[in-house]
Amino acid sequence: MELRVNGRLYKIEVDPDTHLLWVLREHLRLTGTKFGCLKAICGSCTVLVEGEPVRSCSVQVGEVFGREITTVEGIPKDHPVKRAWKEVGVPQCGYCQSGQIVQAYALLSKNPRPTREEIVRAMKGNLCRCGTYPRIIRAVMRASEMMG
Ligand code: FES
Ligand code: FES
């Protein structure tokens, strides 16, 4: 079976029912994607499938064979989202941040000039126990500015 992640093709032998999250972390060692609730609630496991944010804890790998998957590692370091995250100093403990960054990247890919309300709406499913929400909003706005 072949899995396409961050522009690379991986050949893996795995039960198609396995959740994508575990395949990314355990088989491909892409450990930027975190696990929190494992119930599609917290958003810490967010990755993109064909540009759409999904909860990888709730997607079976068999559903995404042959489709383009992007994890936080696949977003370039110099992308405005990552630069803005650093500039604003968003993370506290950091645990939720990969999911936040992937979700913000998905938003800005579709809507490079989101309003504050659109940012809040797009990000509200990604929970942060440290309450970094104001900095997340600031960073998405900053990334939008950087995208010119
Ligand atoms: S671990 Fe997937 S949504 Fe919480
Ligand atoms: S930075 Fe700690 S959970 Fe979000």
Structure description:
The chain is of the alpha+beta class and 148 residues long. It has two domains: 71 residues, Roll (Ubiquitin-like (UB roll)); 67 residues, DNA polymerase, domain 1, CATH 1.10.150.120. 36% of the residues lie in helices and 13% in strands. It is built from five helices and five strands; from the N terminus they run E-E-H-E-E-E-H-H-H-H. Strands 2-1-5-3-4 form a five-stranded mixed sheet, with helices on one face. The protein is globular, with a radius of gyration of 15 Å. It starts with a strand and ends with a helix. The relative contact order is 0.17. The structure holds FE2/S2 (inorganic) cluster (2 copies). One FE2/S2 (inorganic) cluster binds next to loops.
Short overview:
The chain is an alpha+beta fold and 148 residues long.
List the defining traits of the structure above:
148 residues, alpha+beta, Ubiquitin-like (UB roll), DNA polymerase, domain 1, 5 helices, 5 strands, binds FE2/S2 (inorganic) cluster
